[in-house]
Design a protein that fits this description.
The complex is a heterodimer of chains A (about 475) and B (about 475).
Chain A: H1 4-8, E1 10-21, H2 61-73, E2 81-82, E3 85-88, E4 98-101, E5 111-117, E6 122-135, E7 139-143, E8 146-150, E9 157-163, H3 170-187, E10 199-209, E11 219-224, H4 227-246, E12 254-259, E13 264-270, E14 280-281, E15 288-289, H5 292-299, H6 306-312, H7 320-327, H8 330-342, H9 345-360, H10 363-371, H11 374-385, H12 391-400, H13 407-413, H14 422-433, H15 439-446, H16 453-463, H17 470-481
Parallel strand pairs in A: 11-12
Antiparallel strand pairs in A: 1-9, 1-10, 2-15, 3-4, 3-14, 5-6, 6-9, 7-8, 10-11, 12-13
Helix pairs in contact in A: 3-4, 7-9, 8-9, 8-11, 9-11, 11-12, 14-16, 14-17, 16-17
Chain B: H1 3-13, H2 18-31, E1 38-41, H3 43-58, E2 70-74, H4 101-108, E3 112-117, H5 151-158, E4 164-169, H6 175-181, E5 184-187, E6 207-212, H7 215-225, E7 250-254, H8 264-279, E8 283-287, H9 292-310, H10 327-338, H11 341-354, H12 360-383, E9 386-390, H13 406-411, H14 417-422, E10 426-433, E11 439-446, H15 451-462
Parallel strand pairs in B: 2-3, 2-4, 7-8, 7-9
Antiparallel strand pairs in B: 1-3, 4-6, 5-6, 5-10, 9-11, 10-11
Helix pairs in contact in B: 2-3, 7-15, 9-11, 9-12
Classes of the chains: A alpha+beta (about 475), B alpha/beta (about 475).
């Protein structure tokens, strides 16, 4: 076992390659359906994906446009000229015997991501080395003495985002991939479904003594598919590598895999057995030439990014957790900003808290919330403001809110409108004061212990099923007991 | 009237019929089986299509610009019916689910494909001796090679089996067999005709072209096949391939192709052709293109690189020849058994020049030298409209003469390779015959997309 002191002597350095599946309608080069979810194996495969003789790739313009958006979300320079190259290796998931990628002139140049740490609310910058467009490979499943090939995913457009080795902790690594995920989803370039492999991460990790200027030998952990596994594998690798160094042994440059069940990494392929990919410019695909005007035109469609939302909501004085919960759903973030624009900070803050309720509910709940108009949300908030609805009642109305009925109609229907009519409240107060459990409180108040009035107001609220205006009720109690 | 238009006219007017034309072509094919022109005949489908066209004519419907004209395609075009083999064991019996764009466009105009012709396997070679199905024999001398790799198509036209035939040209595979068999062959500007549906050899120089007896038919056939294809991103929009009125042309004779190593009879015939051009009023001068001496070296680095990449898909997994059981065994045995020795040679060279540590020294250097060659052409075309050279340094050589020496075989490409590397249009037209009766072709090279000018110039001398 390593001691805290031993671990503290070292720093880890992490660079991450992230593959993002683009949500274009068709594949990168073949024009067939790009959505393989819930489809039979090999249901969305064209002769081009299948690599029949004589088939040629033709670049999908929509993928280029998505790459532009992704690049701008990464604060990157978009290349005016980019090209495609062939990366060769033999495996049954790769029908052509090569993957079309961008080795020499990628479409997305250097940029940076400001990584948000939800625990501290602080940001750290990770530089992007470049990002490139490429096609995904198919999928193999192994069954004893035979294997099956599914080429549905083959040809799906990917962008691979390559970071600089600017990450130095497991938490930062997790925050980096989470930030990337949000950026890509917000930019609208991916569905961001981690379960279906829409984003996958290769993590390069090395350790070195803190005062060392030289980086240690790195290991690459391939094909992680969750934020948590990125964090866990970085924690594990840090300890594994420090232990090797402390024992005077060498860290090998190799590819490792993450064993989710055992929560550890295992060696897959050493550098000596590394493939020679024999990269070559792809002569079938003409260079992608993008003018600054075109890039600007496509870029104009880039939606508001999470960071801008955070800044915009600073005046709402929300808890970090509330902000992040709203940001989890881009449509809610958009709506909240609309509410803020059309009303005030207080209203928007109240709506933000309602949104967290919706996020805590089921997906259906969230979808319904997205459809509610900002106007109705503002109206609902105003009803609370005017004491027509208790905050508890407002929450209940919010969860049922839809665009068929106004919040007021709904509150009325749900019998939640607060009663401010003193005659009605007087009647409830009389009823409550006659209750046996009220006796002690009544005696206390009469004895000058005014605090006990809260208990009575509570009883009034309970008896009125939350409808009584607590202020009016309090007044009524006082006048009765005088 | 040209051969093709004669047939179309007689089919349209009812003087002849598509069925009669196709039957006659099939009979001619049968009478020349000893030349081994075909890998397969597509008799049944050809006759059905012919019948269909005749019915349309009888019903008074408008039929296409090539109605009833029989033609053949090199067996590396995906075409109905039957197999597309690329003359390789790897694709023996491989049936295609679709047609090449070029074939489809011709058929839409009523042309009728009657068969698939022989070639060097995967178009690797210059003699059609590398075919898995055995060599095609020269149309004029059965002891000599047809040239290649489009040997079968060249001989089919030379023997008069069909009025036109499709081929592919990566470094001379149309022009050289055209020269060896005494027919016209065009390698159009790169990107003129869609490569979709044609088994790829080297993507940056592969072009689709054709063989005919007369230049006029080349213009007609090529203009039907040409044009932008959304299934090939490298096709050019609106190529102009017909009807250029010719002024006095400035013709440059490439010095590097007229000296040592060129057969004296070949040189004489080319000089006679040049004399004809002068007499027709064109201005002829010699021009030196020093980069020509590197062209073959460039070609045999860049092209094997692209070739090994394009052949990587033949892995025995999804289709084609398969042997072995375990994964690496299937890869090894399928590729070992499915490819010919020349295929393997190019795969080895290609992988070598692309491998880590050699890529910069070979592939990148070759691509840089290729740019210098292109620059040299661009400079030459400031002073000249058309460049002239022989198509090949010799007439057709004897069967087996060069098979043991790949380098000697590659030398046959020395004059056709440079325009391929630059994407230029190049036309091979008959310049006459040697005393032994062997045809010799002259090569006319134009600027990119100046194909029509080559046709006009060649037609003048054809008269």
């Amino acid at each position: 076992m390593l001691t805290r002191e031993q671990l503290d002597k070292y720093e880890m350095t992490i660079g991450i390659e992230c593959h993002v599946q683009l949500n274009t309608r068709t594949k990168l080069f073949s024009g067939v359906d790009n959505d393989a979810r819930d489809k039979e194996p090999n249901a969305v495969v064209s002769p081009i994906d299948y690599a029949l003789p004589g088939m040629l790739p033709v670049l999908n313009k929509a993928a280029v446009d998505k790459a532009i958006l992704a690049g701008l979300a990464l604060n990157s320079k978009i290349a005016n000229v980019s090209r495609f190259d062939r990366k060769h290796y033999f495996y049954p998931d790769l029908p052509k015997g090569y993957q079309i990628s961008q080795m020499y002139q990628p479409i997305i140049g250097a940029g940076h991501v400001d990584v948000y740490d939800p625990a501290t609310g602080e940001e750290s910058r990770v530089r992007i080395e470049h990002a490139h467009l490429e096609e995904d490979a198919g999928k193999l499943t192994h069954h004893g003495d035979y294997s099956l090939v599914d080429l549905n995913r083959c040809g799906t457009p990917l962008i691979e985002i390559v970071s600089q080795p600017d990450i130095h902790s497991a938490v930062q690594a997790k925050n980096y991939v989470a930030t990337l995920h949000r950026l890509m989803v917000y930019a609208g370039v991916t569905n961001g479904d981690l379960y279906h492999g829409n984003m996958r991460f290769d993590v390069n990790i090395s350790v070195a003594p803190k005062d060392s200027k030289k980086l240690g030998t790195r290991a690459e952990i391939k094909n992680l598919n969750s934020f948590r596994s990125v964090e866990r594998c970085a924690e594990y690798e840090f300890k594994r590598q420090v232990e090797l160094v402390e024992k005077g042994e060498k860290v090998h440059q190799e590819t490792r895999g993450w064993d989710e069940a055992k929560q550890k990494t295992t060696s897959q392929r050493s550098k000596e057995h590394a493939q020679d990919y024999r990269y070559m410019p792809d002569p079938d695909i003409p260079p992608v030439v993008l003018t600054d005007e075109y890039i600007a035109k496509v870029g104009a469609g880039l939606p508001t990014m999470p960071r801008e939302y955070r800044t915009g909501w600073a005046g709402l004085k929300l808890d970090g957790s509330v902000v992040e919960s709203v940001l989890d759903d881009q449509d809610l973030a958009k709506k909240l900003t609309e509410v803020l624009e059309k009303s005030d900070s207080k209203t928007a803050a109240r709506v933000a808290h309602w949104f967290t309720l919706s996020a805590a509910g089921d997906g259906e709940q969230e979808a319904r919330t997205e459809q509610v108009s900002a106007q109705h949300l503002i109206e609902l908030s105003q009803m609370v403001e005017r004491s027509e609805l208790s905050s508890t009642g407002a929450k209940e109305v919010f969860l049922k809110l839809n665009d068929e009925k106004s919040p007021r109609e709904l509150a009325k229907e749900m019998n939640l409108l607060q009663v401010s009519d003193s005659g009605e409240i007087d009647r409830v107060v009389e009823e409550v004061l006659a209750l046996p459990e009220a006796a002690q409180a009544v005696a206390d108040i009469k004895a000058g212990q005014d605090k006990a009035i809260g208990f009575l107001v509570g009883l009034v609220m309970k008896t009125s099923k939350g409808k009584a205006n607590p202020g009016v009720a309090q007044k009524a109690i006082r006048s009765k007991l005088q | 009237m040209s051969e093709v238009t004669k047939i179309v006219d007689s089919v349209r007017s009812g003087k002849s019929s598509a069925v009669a034309e196709v039957k006659a072509a099939l009979e001619r094919a049968e009478s020349h089986t000893d030349h081994h022109v075909f890998i397969s005949l597509t008799e049944k489908r050809a006759l059905e299509r012919a019948k269909d066209i005749d019915e349309q004519v009888a019903a008074g419907r408008v039929v296409g610009a090539l109605a009833g004209v029989p033609f053949v395609v090199k067996d590396n075009f995906l075409a109905f019916d039957g197999a597309t083999t690329a003359a390789a064991k790897m694709l023996e019996g491989f049936e295609t689910p679709m047609q090449a764009t070029a074939v489809r466009k011709l058929e839409e105009q009523g042309a009728i494909c009657i068969g698939k012709t022989n070639l060097d396997a995967f178009a690797h070679g210059g003699s059609t001796e590398n075919s898995y199905f055995g060599p095609t024999l020269n149309a004029c001398d059965k002891e000599r090679v047809a040239g290649g790799s489009s040997g079968g198509s060249a001989v089919a036209v030379a023997l008069g089996i069909v009025p036109f035939a499709l081929g592919t040209d990566t470094g001379g595979s149309i022009r050289q067999p055209a020269s060896f068999n005494g027919v016209v062959g065009i390698k159009p500007t790169y990107g003129t005709v869609s490569r979709f549906g044609v088994v790829a050899m080297a993507s940056s120089t592969d072009v689709i072209g054709c063989f005919t007896k007369e230049v006029e038919d080349i213009e007609l056939v090529l203009s039907i096949m040409a044009g932008r294809d959304e299934r090939d991103g490298t096709t050019l929009p609106n190529p102009t391939l017909q009807g250029v009125a010719l002024q006095k042309q400035r013709v440059g004779v490439i010095k590097e192709c007229m000296g040592e190593g060129v057969d004296s009879e070949v040189r004489e015939l080319i000089e006679q052709y040049i004399e004809q051009l002068k007499q027709a009023g064109h201005e002829v001068e010699e021009i030196s293109l020093p980069m020509y001496q590197y062209a073959l070296a460039i070609y045999y680095i860049v092209i094997p690189a692209e070739t090994c990449s394009n052949l990587a898909r033949y892995d025995g997994i999804r289709y084609g020849y398969r042997a072995g059981k375990s994964l690496s065994d299937v890869y090894g045995k399928s590729r070992d058994g499915g490819f010919m020795p020349e295929n393997k040679r190019r795969i080895m060279i290609g992988n070598y020049v692309l491998s880590s540590g050699f890529f910069d020294a070979y592939y990148m250097q070759a691509e840089k030298a290729r740019t210098l060659l292109i620059n040299e052409y661009n400079a030459a075309f400031k002073d000249f409209d058309v460049l002239v050279s022989p198509v090949a340094p010799t007439p057709a050589f004897k069967l087996g003469e060069n098979t043991s020496d790949p380098l000697k075989m590659y030398m046959a490409d020395v004059m056709t390779v440079p325009p391929s590397l630059a994407g230029l249009p190049a036309l091979s037209v008959p310049a006459g015959k040697t005393k032994a009766g062997l045809p010799v072709g002259v090569q006319l090279i134009g600027k990119c997309q100046d194909d029509a000018k080559l046709f006009s110039l060649a037609k003048e001398t054809e008269k």
